[in-house]
Amino acid sequence: MAQITSQMLADLEPEIRAAAFYHLYKRAILLPLVYVKDTSGEAGLTSSFPTLPTLLAQDVAETDPTPETTIESAVEDIRVSEKELNLPLTDMTKAAVGSSIVLTIGEMVGSAMARKLDRDIAAVFGNFTKVYGSAGAALTAGVPTKAAAILANNEAPGSIYGALHPYQALGMKDALTNAFGSGTMNPPSEMKANEVLYQNYLGTLGGAHLLESAAIQADANGDAYGAIFSRLAIGVNMKQPFELELERNGVGRTTHILGHGKWGVKAINPQFGVSMLSDCSEPA
């Protein structure tokens, strides 16, 4: 096994950086579902995101002038903050594991930044105008369909997505398939029940494409907010998704592999999202 040196790390920095970027965008499953504004070439840490009023054309008689429609210039400001990762790699560790560790460094760094990005997005799921569900109770299959109906009534633009904690989704799967029931309950749809059983995937309910994400974090009571939302419900001010830096500490005989990011997340059109509160305790 070849011993890895600090010079090898420096020489492989482009490969590590490329692998980190690849895994960042591969693992950040919530990022493509929201509105991302690239501000990397702009000065300042705060960027304004427009809110979207609902406009309606009017009937006008042939000889009447066209009435003016006032557009309120409301905006939501999102300020970025720093996201940091520091992986210390000692000389003894490098000598012990050899060059194979280099192949996984990029994956580890990129996955860590992606995990933080998705958690920041999921952290605003409780900030929407409408909330369904309750703490301590399981999430029922009817909640996402009601939430999707609310967004349809609010004329939320674009596709509708949903994100649930895996334990929130488990309760819905049980309800749809009666997988752990007495066998006396009938699933609402044999086709949907088979899809859930065979693929372990909720798919589409009420027009919302449902995903499971461990980025959704439970509170101290074991409850969490999932959400149904359209792309313009959440804004991401992306100043810097990722930057890699290698820093050598000769005194400590350690090479620090640093990952830097700068972004901010906020619910910019809260009427285009619905929060879903439920229990997400670990199953017994």
Automatic annotation (TrEMBL):
<dbReference type="Pfam" id="PF25209">
    <property type="entry name" value="Phage_capsid_4"/>
</dbReference>
<protein>
    <recommendedName>
        <fullName>Major capsid protein</fullName>
    </recommendedName>
</protein>
